[in-house]
Please model this.
Amino acid sequence: MKIVLDAMGGDNAPDANIKGAVNAINKVKAEVILVGKEDIIRSKIKEFYGKELEQISSRLKIKNATETIEMEDTPTIAIKHKKDSSMVVGFKMLKEDEGDVFISAGNSGALLTGATLLVGRIKGIDRPALAGILPAYHSQLLLIDAGSNTNCKPINLLQFAQMSTIYIRNTFGIEHPAIGLLNIGTEETKGNDLVKESYKLLKEKSEELGINFVGNVEGRDAFSGKIDAIVTDGFTGNVFLKTTEGLGKFVKKTLTESFMKNIISKILAVPSLPALKRFSKEMDYKSYGGALFLGVKKPVVKAHGSSDELLFEYTIIQAEKFVENKAVDKMIDEFEKLNSKKAEEKLQNNMQ
Amino acid sequence: MKIVLDAMGGDNAPDANIKGAVNAINKVKAEVILVGKEDIIRSKIKEFYGKELEQISSRLKIKNATETIEMEDTPTIAIKHKKDSSMVVGFKMLKEDEGDVFISAGNSGALLTGATLLVGRIKGIDRPALAGILPAYHSQLLLIDAGSNTNCKPINLLQFAQMSTIYIRNTFGIEHPAIGLLNIGTEETKGNDLVKESYKLLKEKSEELGINFVGNVEGRDAFSGKIDAIVTDGFTGNVFLKTTEGLGKFVKKTLTESFMKNIISKILAVPSLPALKRFSKEMDYKSYGGALFLGVKKPVVKAHGSSDELLFEYTIIQAEKFVENKAVDKMIDEFEKLNSKKAEEKLQNNMQ
Model:
């Protein structure tokens, strides 16, 4: 297996990307290929580790790419014109089977545009979407769309529900994952127009499409562990994701300060350090890695823009699992079956 | 001062409402008037405390109301037809100066309809909105609209910014509160259509209206303590609020389990109990009471639907402060000044 990592994308690139790849290399079986300016990557590795890249691992590689897509670049223009950027080169490797998964922490818009234009959508999916994995009570929660489609239609939300069902079944082994619609109340009549119409469509189509639709879900019940995925538009989903992140940071800071208030509280905290560690581990969104871009023909992982070396390491490990589970291949298969079923029905209808 | 409490509204009514009022009565200077079925309230008090209502406090009163608005009731119909419901009677007391603030944990839609129809909007405000107060790092965060207007226009968000500025200045003593627009990125070009247009309008009008508009704010920065209020539509705001709540519950449960995992971790946790208590207090959204309904002519407080007796107690104490600060009177004054200034300008323009 070959994991392709955009070495130049993200707030802490290329240092964090390179260090994350080096840290991960002995925890994965795959090759890790850093895409970016070869001379810079080589000199950084020498600086950080006092060794040549080849001395670190025979599975650590470089693919040279001379350009970089910046955060300020307009997505479509950048993808079309910066042909030798780390992102475009990475996507081409994916397309030409020189890589099995592509990870980037760079410009989100460009990543989504590139995935759609250069790798291509799965037939039957109008809008691919970012799926984030969040911690939940003794479980995890898949959030789709976590931020790629700011304006959505009900059909998009239905397809998000289909994709999450297939993904969760194949990755977490949950046969009938519970899919909820993010709303501000559990009643059918609640919400804005998009949510009301999506509710109707999901209710109507869920049996036919094998979706275990559990109805509207409020944010207050999202982390209960009873819901496996929540579907929503990319604006609301991104607000949800970032609110979770913001509150998480605030909790951590406040908890630390409560324990570190003075020398006495610091000493008193020592016996409970294992419990605190257990708590941190359970809560840490980082251990869930990046967000998956579902609906394209190959595995694409969006790493957090502010990824540090630890987060890159986690994301690489998760990406390997993503490929091992063949989640994307299975998704293509299931949608193909669905498409041919539809085509058959259409043919039969026309013949009647 | 007279605090009017809907005794029949909320998931735990009337028990939690009555107990909350009894708990609060010695912590406030005001009279607390329970509105609801007198015979039930009297017999509950006898059951809980073995005393008559009059024996508990001379400041604890009842106003009889024979009907109740249920959660399933259609707001407008309920307000128009259930004329002897605890909610309608409560609003009438407010209107006729038999009460200074009305608190209800009942049907949100009915509460908002009642406040607008029976108490009336402040001139210059098109849509009153719920303002929730959340904990933030060494500070607090006002969230408006927390859930009353599912579909909003840019002008509504501008007015929410005006109202929060006036409210925060008068309540928390922050002369130029920092007002942010909830978005999925900090750049001007980010977000859905509503947010993009609202950004433009806020930027254009903020100086004239004395709003310290700090631009787009992401959920991840909302709790940093640097932002005093975030404005958003009622759908997104409610998702934000409930996500915060859901994650808070999850954090609490996980933290408790980490410390209570086994007998050893329980013993080891003892020395750090003060730190844990400090943390809980800092985080507890309950101590911030209910949400304020800003933009109507009298103080109206929406208590949490699932309020327990402790939360009712907090909400009553907070409601007293809300009245003492004269936040609503000051808001009426400021909008009147603004309206007469506008009228004058219009007159001058016409004369030119």
User: Anything to note?
Assistant: The longest strand of chain B covers residues 129-136.
